[in-house]
Amino acid sequence: MKIFNVGYKSSNYYLIDADQYCLAIDIGWPGTINDYGRQLRPAGKRVQEINYLIVTHFHVDHAGLVQELKDKGVKFILFDMQIQSIAQMEAVIQKKMSYKPINLEDNIIITLSESRKVLQSIGLSGEVIHTPGHSGDSISVFLDSGDAFIGDLRPENQIMEDDIVSKNSWLKLKELGAKRVNPGHGHSFEV
Ligand SMILES: [Zn+2]
């Protein structure tokens, strides 16, 4: 398994090459599909060679290209608890952004409790957990290797004292055994 940061425009997007299958975690702003494709070159991949996509939450800098990837054959793994956030994101996207709305009919919709089985089927050992704090729909992808992809959950040392929700999300991540944290913005860090 290899992990690549294929981010741009001050956001991190990740590509996990699990030998047989390739999983993307988060993707960029609307209208930036060419930037994204360019960032895949060091990983030796083209957009069409990505098999699956998961987004950590529905903010436009993390989910703005979902439909464009799907149109290139990428299968979108959508968690049932995230579905209602799509409309919320799309309601605030400005027209000038050349955004392609997400087709709700052709996604792979699963529950978080099914995530381990689904990741297994694409060659990855790990699970997806609910880690709210930054947004209610925020999830983290945890791999048993200790790598965690947390989207925009704040680093633990930047959480306000009374932000119990974010603190609980970190508790869950640490209980699972998160060691290397790959955030949506900024550098990766060790726990
Ligand atoms: Zn966000």
UniProtKB/TrEMBL annotation:
Residues in domain Metallo-beta-lactamase? 10-185
**GO MF terms on file?**
hydrolase activity
State whether keyword Hydrolase applies: yes
Supply the Gene3D superfamilies for this chain: Ribonuclease Z/Hydroxyacylglutathione hydrolase-like (3.60.15.10)
- The superkingdom of the source organism is Archaea
The record's keywords, sorted A to Z, are: Hydrolase
Q: What is the protein's name according to its record?
A: Metallo-beta-lactamase superfamily hydrolase
Source organism (scientific name): Methanosarcina horonobensis HB-1 = JCM 15518
